[in-house]
Amino acid sequence: MIYVLLPAYNEESALPPLVSNIGDSFAAGEAAYRIVIVDDGSSDNTVSVAKELEGKYPIDVVPHEVNKGLGAAMLTGFTYLCENASDVDLVVAMDADNTHDPRLIPKMVEAVEAGSDVVIASRYAPGGQEVGLSAFRKFLSRGASFLVQAFFPVKGARDFSCGYRMYRIEILKKAFTKYGNNFITETSFVCMAEILVKLAAVPATVSEVGLVLRYDLKEGASKMKYLKTMERYIRFLFREKIHGLGQSSAQ
């Protein structure tokens, strides 16, 4: 079984085409799939749209009553999956804003079958690129990955901030065993770097496949506050370097 985890906040417009594309990507294959939408306290019609899609696609909706941030949504999703999926199952996490192409999933499965525990859909791997992203945003993304790699080198990883990844359920369960409630402490977009460096320390085998990030397909403004996010990266890295991965609490 392949689970598709979609942490969503105010994505009423993006969910229908994304879910349709996910369904199409699995239609020609033999793999069974299920979509898990974690609604992070959306103020629009994301929940009702997701509920409508349940009638056509295999979907579970897991809601937060209030907005808690991406990290909390990822933690909720991972917890739900570890409680309901088997060790041999896979989960692919994607942004719910329709900027990630689900047709890349079969290639990610191949990488898992070749021995990877975590597969990153990477803008910086061969074949990867960014479409519709500002030069400033590109600079920040590359700078964040460079900074994390300098503090916590992860073999096989170049893209530390992209949320499009495939994980073995087994490695996620091992992470919860190792870190407990400190597996994901960051509530912001920095949680993606935190997840990766902590899984690498489990240890997990990491690899990448090339991703063409279609930011030109995104509807609405970005939810990322760039300077605040960079500040969170720096605080996270120094905190974890000083105290040790998984030993500190959220700040």
Tally of strands: 9
Dominant shape? globular
Q: Please, what is the CATH homologous superfamily?
A: Spore Coat Polysaccharide Biosynthesis Protein SpsA, Chain A
Specify the biggest β-sheet: 7 strands, mixed
Label the structural class. Answer: alpha/beta
| Beta-strand residue percentage | 15-25%
Mean pLDDT: 91
Query: What is the CA-CA span between the terminal residues?
Result: 36 Å
Succession of helices and strands: EHEHEHEHEEHEHHEEH
Low-confidence region ranges: none
Count of distinct structural domains: 1
CATH topology: Spore Coat Polysaccharide Biosynthesis Protein SpsA, Chain A
Give the C-alpha Rg: 17 Å
Examine the secondary-structure arrangement and name the CATH architecture. Answer: Alpha-Beta Complex
CATH class category name: Alpha Beta
Question: Can you give a write-up of this model?
Answer:
- β2 (33-40), α2 and β3 (59-64) form a beta-alpha-beta unit.
- α5 packs parallel to α8 (226-243).
- The protein has one domain (2-243): Spore Coat Polysaccharide Biosynthesis Protein SpsA, Chain A.
- The protein starts with a strand and ends in an 8-residue tail after the last helix.
- It has helices at residues 15-27, 46-54, 70-84, 105-113, 135-151, 169-179, 191-200, 226-243, and strands at residues 2-8, 33-40, 59-64, 90-93, 118-122, 129-131, 165-168, 206-210, 212-214.
- The chain is α/β, with parallel strands linked by helices.
- The longest helix has 18 residues, at 226-243.
- The protein contains eight helices and nine strands.
- The strands form two sheets. Strands 3-2-1-4-7-5-8 form a seven-stranded mixed β-sheet, sandwiched between helices. A two-stranded parallel ribbon has the order 6-9.
